[in-house]
TrEMBL record:
Transmembrane segments: 12-36, 81-103, 123-141, 153-171, 183-204
Lineage: superkingdom: Eukaryota
Pathway: Protein modification; protein glycosylation
Organism of this sequence: Callosobruchus maculatus
A cellular component annotation (GO) from this entry: endoplasmic reticulum membrane
Name recorded for this polypeptide: Protein RFT1 homolog
Amino acid sequence: MGSNVLKSSIEKATFTIIFQVLFRCISFILNAYIIRTVGQDVLGIMNVRLLLLESTILFLSQEPIFKACLADTKSQNWAQIVNQVWLSIPLCICISTVLVYVWINLLSTVEHAHLPQYKIGCYAMAVSCIIEQVTQVMVLVSQSYCFVKLKVMLDTIYIISRTIIFVYFVHNNPSFALNAFSIAQVSSSIVLLLLYVGFFTWYISALTEFKRKGNSKAAIFSDMLDFPFTSVKDFLPGVMANQ
């Protein structure tokens, strides 16, 4: 892979800063809307309880395997890397089961009026984490092959879609706020997965056509002749031939 790593690093830093600023602005506006519409108790449950559960599950199930696989991409044995990344899904299921039980039964209880929706929210966080784990092979590939703008764009769409879905349901039924947050979380995770699948379906097809004809001047295909994936199915475990 002959991608310009220095240029990609600069672009990544730039787009990350832009994304973080956008994310903070959206979060501020959303939090202000929640406080105004449903109160600070619901905001506390969402930001402290549910999002903490999500970040804990993702950190424990994703970071060790992802970091190890990212370091191993230099070996270019993508069949093994793909299989290793998929191990994070059963790991995520096990960790989610334990942590959801802890969040519901062992931590201090929330107000009785919010308890049913809070339980649903805990399960929704676990489901969204599992869905997000499915995208990790594609995230790793995009990071290894310097698709800098892709992750920033898809993460932005993910945040915006989650916000729009949440605000839509809360606007129509403020008492439905925690369930709305759960629906928004799972729905946006599905959207993110579909976007990654859609992009790589298009990209692999277009790259194959480029390799066959070689008449495209698009920068996205330059220095990508060593791209090892020939189908989206290659992102599934056990599909690629081991090297």
